[in-house]
Structures are given as structure tokens and as C-alpha cells.
Amino acid sequence: MTMRGRRPGSAGSVLLSRRLGGFAVCLSATLLAACSSPDPKLYTVASLPGTAVSGTPKVVSLHSVGIARYLQRNQIVQTSEDYRVVLRGTDWWAEPLDAMLTRVLAQDLTERLPQTTVYTSAGAVTGSPEATIEVELSRLDLDRAGNLLLIGQGSVSFKNQASPDTRSLHISQTPPSPGVEGQIAATSTAIAQVADAIAAMLADGRPAVGPGRR
To answer: How large is the angle between the packed helices 97-112 and 179-204, nearest 10 degrees?
Structure first.
């Protein structure tokens, strides 16, 4: 009686095939989970109406709003308290935050300065400004008490003045509701208050940032 011998390497081939098959199943499951992850919700800061200010320059230029590096991300920063930056998961900004704040601040200023043409230095429209506005934000998120905290500086340079008028910005705004929508609403109000301050500086050089609106 003749016994047929197993082909060399046949057991190893079967084991390798099983391992590759298992790897393919795991890879497919991973890709499926990635594809089924929820799409991000997109949010934007809104322009808010304000009190008209007269006696301002005819043409002003707004430089791009500068923001701290920790804010330069798609996800909305909920807070930076206690040495940690906490993000809001799938809640994202609809556009880069610095570009969004520049656009909204320009709209807020246009609302408050009916006698003034406001354009952004990064935009397609240019002119010969009588004053230049710069805003730099070092913080824009919720503090430990849950209030929206805006910290930064605002500067107005007049064409015929040697040095700019620079003011500190420190605004605390209570969100009207919990969650991301309340934070965005409070952010919109805080940016509107920055516009109030800049408009007043353009009119008479006095600071106008005080306690946050309630």
C-alpha cells in the first residue's frame, strides 16, 4: 500500500491564507467604521447689529484678525482651562476661524460706521485708508465658570498720527444656552463688542470695552 505524502508547505500555506483572510476582515471592518463616522456639524459666528457711530474716517482697512495657535483648527475649542485644550468633537468651524472673525468683524464695523467704507486688507477690494485696524486674540473659549472669555488687543493707526492707539480687550460673555450653540452665540456677541470698541476708537480714541453684555 502506497501512502501519499503531503505536499511540502501545504499546512503553512493554509495557515498563511487564514491569517491573510482574518487581516482582510479586520481591515474591512476598520474602513467601514471610518466611513460610518458621523459628519461634522459646521458652525459660523454671526454678525450682530449695533449703535451707529459718526465722526469716523471715510475709509478704513481691517487687517486679518490674528488668533492664538491653539485656536487654529477645524474643531471648536470648548475651553483651555486647567492646562488642557478641550475640543468639541464633531462640532467644527465652517471656515478657518481667523478668516471668519475677520469677515464678521468687518460686517459688524460696517453696521456701526454708516459714514465709513470698511474693507479687509486680504480682500479683493483695496483703497487708500485713513485708518488701519488690527486685532489680535490670545484667547476665545469658555472659562471655568462657563462664560465665553475673549482676551486680546485692538489697535487703530491713523494716517496722520505717528503711533497707533492700542487697547486691551477683555470681554466675558455669558452664553444664552448650554452647549455649542450657546458658545457660538456668546462668541458672536463678544466680537460685536470688539466692533463697538473699535468704532469708538475710530470716532474719538477712547476705549469702549467694558463688562460683557448680559
So the answer is: 50
